[in-house]
Write the structure tokens for this entry.
Amino acid sequence: MMKILLSVLLAVLTMSLVSAQQQADPALLSDGQLHVVMCGTGSPLADATRASACVAVAAGGEVVLIDVGPGSWRQVAVNRIPAQAVSAVLLTHFHSDHIGDLGETVTQSWLAGRAKPLEVYGPPGVEKVLAGFAQAYSQDVEYRIAHHTEAMLPRAGSTAVAREVKLKSDTEAAVVFERNGLKVTAFKVEHDPVKPAYGYRLDYKGRGVVVSGDTAKSANLAKHAAGADLLIHDVLAKDVMGMAAGNIERAGDKRRARLVRDILTYHAAPVEAAEIANEAKIETLVFTHMVPPLNPPVTEQMFLRGVADVFKGKVVLAKDGLRFDLPARN
Ligand SMILES: [Zn+2]
Ligand SMILES: [Zn+2]
């Protein structure tokens, strides 16, 4: 009996090990395209089907995660992004819905085989964020090295290194890095009182993707997004949220009504994002970080109303796992 049980257990273990190895999609690293996978399309408001902010970009052997909000690592893994190949994290700003899975990102990519420190880029303050996560995870690192040995899990891989990105001015973009054909630039967006907050542009072989981060309507974003294929923009249905604030206040909850009204000022409405997409002459506009959450699906209309009047290109409401493959143009 014991023998049978043991062999069943072994078979299950072997199967799960094999499938773990097969999980990553190696083509993402080597097929010469610019790949974009939406790994977190939610907001701070709870959504059963969406993790918080995260976009994965794979090109030229680089795997870059733009923001790593709570729940996003699971989406990176289930969408077969090669975890050991994560080569950089770009943080747009330090709101919790953009940084909550930083600990998981560092730990899981290390366990998957990343042996060098993980580079984490962001506005001034990024060092403080990393130091906090390093402290919180320091005991976990020791458990894992004691358990698996340092030969299996090089200590350097358990660490992240902060790379502060400084802008020369409010309107100029800064080159974050350029390697293996992938060029990453950062620029300022409008998310006061969060200062500075960045958007990022990633260019590879004539294709370009822009991630807005969290921003109100920003002329600077339009300037730096010019000619990109994809603009991934946060959106808040201001009319609906404004009405919700009124209802909440009438129901007697002044505190919550105030919180809702506060967030109206630092995100873009869908039509405002469409105006930016139009100005930048981008090909496809992708809405993400949608507030309120799209539940039930009939709420999609809140984000599409009036958009087609402004922007004639393709408009997509992002969901976790949505993927774009952009073949090289040059
Ligand atoms: Zn934010
Ligand atoms: Zn946010």
Q: What stands out?
A: The longest strand covers residues 182-189. The radius of gyration is 21 Å.
